[in-house]
Amino acid sequence: MPKVARWEKRVAWLVSASLAAIVIATASLNLQGSRLFDEYILLAVVIAIFPPAMLDYVDYRWKKSIDERLPDLFRSIVQAQESGMALPQAIEEASKRRYGALTAELKKMTAQISWGMSFEEALQSFGQRVDTKLTRQSIPLIVEASRSGGRIERIFEPLGQFVESTLMAERERRAQTRPYVAIVYVAFFVFLLIIIILFKTFFLQMGDLSILRFAFLSPEETRRLFFHMSFLQALFGGIVAGKMGEGTLSGGFLKHSVILLIAGYLSIKFFV
User: Fold this and answer.
1) Which long-range contacts (CB under 8 A, 24 or more apart) does 15-24 make?
2) pLDDT tens digits, 186-210
3) DSSP secondary structure letters along the chain
4) CA 62: distance to chain centroid?
5) How far apart are CA 134 and CA 75, in angstroms?
6) pLDDT the model gives residue 18
7) Which fold has domain 68-167?
8) Cβ pair 81, 90 in contact under 8 A
9) Taking the model in full, what pTM does it have?
10) Phi first, then psi: what are they for 248, rounded to 5°?
């Protein structure tokens, strides 16, 4: 996956928010009080959040691919230094191998060194470009090791083990939270089933009774209320599921909220 720059995310937020505002304004002027008004609001929310969330998730996957290849990179550097190469040469040799998205960043780093930039500055520039949690933790240690001199390769082996243990802990966390993600889905679909049963067996058949007129709830008003409830349940339930499963709010909206929103919309539209 490609890297997404910060300015691209800002442009996506600006364009999406502008389009969503246009949709809401159009619905408010022409569809206020109708059934289509709620559908336009749902469309506006998806337009406002989906493109920026998609870019944020793509950037998250790119950073994740970088972190997952760091142990391989550190092992290559150790092997190169054990053969007598200096650290900049070891990184240049590693840049010739295939490390996915990490390879392009290593080539940029070696190019900067060849242009006259010091190894420390090139390494810090690499960290600023990549900007992942593991690189932020690793690069200061590499910089200090290069300053101190001696057998620098000794730091890379424990550093690679630390990165591998961190990635393993993250995989275990995702595996342990999958049942909780499933609970979000089960709870939402049970909620939809209850709504459908209540509407068809109670609210629809008793819509003409005085008790409902007294409560100011017609069948259409009840349907809109259920639609709003399912919308909120899908949106925030999906975000919570994504935060537990992927660790990111954007991943929750893309992978879970959109699925639940579509399921809720279709259920309310065709069964309520």
Assistant:
1) 15/51, 16/47, 16/48, 16/49, 16/50, 16/51, 16/52, 17/48, 19/47, 19/48, 20/44, 20/45, 20/47, 20/48, 23/47
2) 999 999 998 888 877 776 666 555 5
3) -----HHHHHHHHHHHHHHHHHHHHHHHHH-TTSHHHHHHHHHHHHHHHHHHHHHHHHHHHHHHHHHHHHHHHHHHHHHHHHTT--HHHHHHHHTTS--THHHHHHHHHHHHHHTT--HHHHHHHHHHHH--HHHHHHHHHHHHHHHH-S-THHHHHHHHHHHHHHHHHHHHHHHHHHHHHHHHHHHHHHHHHHHHHHIIIIITTTTTSHHHHHTT--HHHHHHHHHHHHHHHHHHHHHHHHHHHTS-HHHHIIIIIHHHHHHHHHHHHHH-
4) 11
5) 16
6) 92
7) Receptor-associated Protein (1.20.81)
8) yes
9) 0.78
10) -135, 145
Q: Which residues of the chain have pLDDT under 70?
A: 1, 33, 149-153, 203-217, 250-252, 272
Q: Which residues contact 133 (CB under 8 A, 6 or more apart)?
A: 67
CA angle 238, 247, 46 (to 5 degrees): 35
Region of residue 85 (left: phi > 0; alpha: psi -120 to 50; beta: else)? beta
Residue 224 tokens read as 């809109």
Exposure string for 41-63, b = 16+ CB within 10 A, e = fewer: bbbbbbbbbbbbbbbbbbbbbbb
- Per-residue confidence (pLDDT) for residue 214, from 0 to 100: 45
pLDDT at 142: 80
Q: Identity (one letter) of the amino acid at 171?
A: R
Q: What are phi and psi of 47, to 5 degrees?
A: -65, -40
